[in-house]
Design brief:
Bound molecules: nicotinamide-adenine-dinucleotide
Radius of gyration: 20 Å
Number of strands: 12
């Protein structure tokens, strides 16, 4: 198969591409605009493969999308390109409306025109097997009320932030293209991911890197928000299963059965760091008598902050035989070790050189 992955230079998209190149015989076209969140250095291990190619394209640019489809003739699309950071969506929602809604619409239309053209070219089989896999989030469902409640594929949409509202809108567009045009779509809604190559503005990498620098570890409100954490490589495996074995028209929820309060996540990171690089031996973090945990500081909560998300992943487990391989403990240990062993990647993101060099600046 030739799979076109949008947003392949991002956190999850790069994990998907690494998974496909390293574990299958399929080819990948990585289509990415390279916003601040796109980093080709996350693909260094696979970029030399003759089954990998890169197109720097904005999903809002229909002429460029048309060219890419005509040139590469993909068998499937995995659509991950998005603006993805909730805090940024509160400060500046416009880019979220543009990429997540208008961009998804533009991509759907370009993909549909290409798909329709396959029959005219006598490629009926390729048309019948074509898939548009839209990757979305559990945040479209909003907050859970009861402590035992779980999001299922039937849960009503109730998004709280500009980010989740824009993702919910894109999910609705994708379903409408299936229903109205018979366009073969599949949707997945996943819980919070963590793991290698995660951009340091997000909670887990931010806390690891701040702790190593002896900086404050900021926690929103009381830190009692609950998220269901999934190791990114488990998500990548699930997504590949869905695009290759999932049924057209279906939605699959993906989650890790790892509900943790944000404060528990931060305490776990502190404990792992104490074990791997003890604070009293780490000059930058040694200022605090309580080790890394002493760096925790509580900051004003994010407006509209949802309290609890949790996924019921029974459907994908039963129908596609997928289960996560990592527990929260094993995945967190791998993640902390990865940041300890890959300080160059993180430093180049933090000091902006990953972006400046690609723009030809010093
Ligand atoms: P990310 O921010 O790390 O990466 C997004 C990628 O999209 C970047 O490489 C960026 O350059 C690219 N991009 C942005 N705008 C674009 C445009 N207009 N045209 C082309 N490319 C563009 O995001 P992520 O965390 O990897 O998330 C990927 C997808 O998975 C998103 O759709 C997100 O909503 C969804 N998701 C994320 C999580 C999570 O925990 N990170 C959980 C569930 C679902």
């Amino acid at each position: 198969m030739k799979i076109l992955v949008t947003g392949g230079a991002g956190f999850i998209g790069s994990a998907v591409i690494r998974h496909i190149i390293e574990n299958t015989q399929d080819s990948v076209i990585n289509l990415d605009k390279l916003t601040y969140a796109g980093n080709l250095e996350s693909l260094e291990g696979v970029a030399n493969s003759n089954r990998y190619s890169f197109e720097q394209v904005d999903i809002c640019d229909s002429a460029e999308l048309k060219r890419v489809f005509a040139e590469h003739q993909p068998d499937a699309i995995m659509h991950l390109a998005a603006e993805s950071h909730v805090d940024r969506s509160i400060d500046g929602p416009a880019a979220f409306i543009e990429t997540n809604i208008v961009g998804t619409y533009t991509l759907l239309e370009a993909a549909r025109a290409y798909w329709n053209g396959l029959a005219k070219d006598g490629k009926e089989n390729k048309k019948a097997n074509f898939r548009f896999h839209h990757i979305s989030t559990d945040e479209v469902y909003g907050d859970l009320e009861g402590p035992e409640d779980l999001f299922t594929e039937e849960t009503s949409y109730n998004p709280s932030s500009p980010y989740s509202a824009s993702k919910a809108s894109s999910d609705h567009l994708v379903r409408a293209w299936l229903r109205t045009y018979g366009f073969p779509t599949i949707i997945t809604n996943c819980s919070n991911n963590y793991g290698p190559y995660h951009f340091p503005e997000k909670l887990i990498p931010l806390v690891i890197l701040n702790a190593l620098e002896g900086k404050d570890l900021p926690i929103y409100g009381k830190g009692n928000q609950i998220r269901d954490w999934l190791y990114v490589e488990d998500h990548a495996r699930a997504l590949y299963k869905v695009v290759t074995e999932g049924l057209v028209g279906e939605t699959y929820n993906i989650g890790g059965h790892n509900e943790k309060q944000n404060i528990q996540v931060v305490q776990t990171i502190c404990e792992l760091l104490e074990e791997l690089v003890p604070a009293n031996k780490n000059s930058k973090a040694s200022g605090s008598s309580q080790g890394f945990e002493g760096l925790i500081t509580y900051v004003k909560d994010r407006p509209g902050h949802d309290i609890r998300y949790a996924i019921d992943a029974t459907k994908i487990e039963k129908e596609l035989n997928w289960t996560p391989q990592e527990t929260f403990e094993s995945g967190m240990k791998k993640t902390v070790k990865w940041y300890l062993n890959n300080s160059k990647w993180a430093t180049r993101v933090q000091d902006g050189s990953y972006q400046r060099e690609r723009l030809g600046e010093k």
